[in-house]
Every structure is written in C-alpha cells, then in structure tokens.
C-alpha cells in the first residue's frame, strides 16, 4: 500500500531560499525519510539532492553529515549514501528494547505524574491525532516521537533519556513503516487513546501490560508486510 492509498499526503522537497541552509536541508531530508518518500535502504545521490533542493554541495554535505551522525542516513565508503536500512531482526530487537525501556520509565515516573504532567501528555496526544487526521505523515512521526518521549522526560533519569534518544532514529523509521503501510487506522488511534487512559489511571500494572500489548501489536502489524532481510 502506498502513502497516498493509506490516506496520507506524500511529501516533496522544496527549494531552500534563506540563510539557514544546513538546518533547512537536514530538516527536509529528515522529513523525506519520515514521510516515506525515501525508503529504508534507498540510495541517495549528492548531485540529485543538490539539484532538487537548489543548493550548493557544501551545505548539503554538512546536513548529510548531521543526519549520518544522528543515525538517519548511512554513508558507506565506495558505495554511497543510503537511508538507514532496517531488517526484520532490527525491528524485533527494537520491540524488545522499547518495551523494556518504556516499562522501566513508567515504573520510575508513576509517582511523579502531576496534573500538569498529565495535561502535557494529553496535549501531545491531541497534537498527534491532529497530524494523523490531516494526513501529515512527517509531522505525525515527530509528534508520535514526542508522545512517547513524555514518560522518559518525566523520569528526570538522564541515562535512560540518553538511551531513548539514541533509539529515536530507528524508532522513527519503524513508525514510518507502520504509518506508510496502515495509515491512521482506527485500531492505531484506539491503542494510542488507551495508552493515555492507562497513563492517567491508577494501575501501574495495567499500564505496563498495555505497553507490551501496544508495542507487540505495532511490531506484528509491520512484520506482516515486511519484505524480510
């Protein structure tokens, strides 16, 4: 199923016109990955990117280096530049790591849930739903990342947050595969709403169980349509 058939608006590159070239280029290339325009493992060429963006090679190379450092792109000697590839094994490892980390984060954060903190979670959920409703896949990926980042930020645990941030590039590619394949289907919205309800609730055990269900369902959805290694 294509992005368009999933009800999401395909992204496209736009010419960059102001002085913040490196940051703008990096943002647009990142958006191309999270919108599904550039697929995992796809080869990118410097010349084609520079022509489409209408920029010189110097700021483009700086932006590319930034995205390579962030784990979104991969530069392979004598082969070229690629979107970070993802295998089924990568996805299964990500599922197990995300489940463990997010459950640990909720154990730490459970007694730190103030009214203000819970209101922020609801705000992030509403922003995510708004992006999905508008078919803005790249924005939805950014907001889904922020949605799940909430609990890590709430813990105040710097090492845990650092581990989460290192996972984010792979998490975003996974989210892209999920949305590109299935769009903003009702079950996805329902599971995200349940996530908020459990986070606002009184049972930590129920929250931890839902995290496992939430992550497993997402993994199975992507694996079912994944081409494999």
Relevant terms:
229 residues; mainly alpha; Arc Repressor Mutant, subunit A; Four Helix Bundle (Hemerythrin (Met), subunit A); 2 domains; 3-stranded antiparallel sheet; 68% helix
Word description of this protein:
- Mean pLDDT is about 90; it is low at about 1-5.
- The chain has two domains: about 20-85, Winged helix-like DNA-binding domain superfamily/Winged helix DNA-binding domain (Arc Repressor Mutant, subunit A), CATH 1.10.10; about 90-225, Four Helix Bundle (Hemerythrin (Met), subunit A).
- It has a three-stranded antiparallel beta sheet.
- Helix 1 (about 20-35) crosses helix 6 (about 135-155), helix 4 runs antiparallel to helix 9 (about 205-225) and helix 8 runs antiparallel to helix 9.
- It is elongated, with a radius of gyration of 18 Å.
- It has helices at about 20-35, 45-55, 55-70, 90-110, 115-135, 135-155, 160-180, 185-200, 205-225, and strands at about 45, 75, 80-85.
- With about 230 residues, the chain is mainly alpha-helical.
- It has nine helices and three strands; from the N terminus they run αβααββαααααα.
């Amino acid at each position: 199923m294509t992005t368009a058939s999933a009800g999401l608006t395909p992204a496209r590159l736009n010419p960059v016109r102001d002085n913040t070239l490196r940051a703008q280029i990096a943002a647009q290339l990142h958006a191309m990955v999270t919108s599904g325009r550039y697929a995992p493992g796809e080869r990118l060429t410097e010349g084609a990117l520079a022509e489409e963006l209408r920029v010189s090679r110097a700021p483009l190379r700086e932006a590319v280096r930034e995205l390579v450092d962030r784990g979104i792109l991969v530069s392979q000697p004598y082969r070229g530049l690629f979107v970070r590839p993802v295998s089924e094994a990568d996805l299964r490892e990500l599922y197990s790591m995300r489940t463990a980390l997010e459950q640990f984060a909720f154990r730490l954060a459970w007694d730190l849930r103030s009214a203000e903190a819970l209101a922020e979670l609801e705000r992030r959920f509403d922003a995510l739903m708004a992006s999905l409703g508008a078919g803005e896949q790249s924005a939805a990926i950014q907001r889904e990342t922020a949605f799940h980042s909430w609990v890590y930020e709430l813990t105040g645990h710097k090492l845990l947050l650092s581990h989460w941030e290192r996972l984010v590039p792979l998490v975003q590619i996974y989210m892209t595969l999920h949305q590109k394949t299935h769009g903003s289907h009702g079950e996805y919205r329902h599971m995200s709403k349940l996530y908020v309800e459990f986070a606002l609730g009184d049972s930590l055990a129920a929250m931890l169980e839902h995290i496992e269900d939430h992550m497993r369902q997402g993994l199975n959805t992507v694996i079912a349509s994944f081409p494999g290694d």
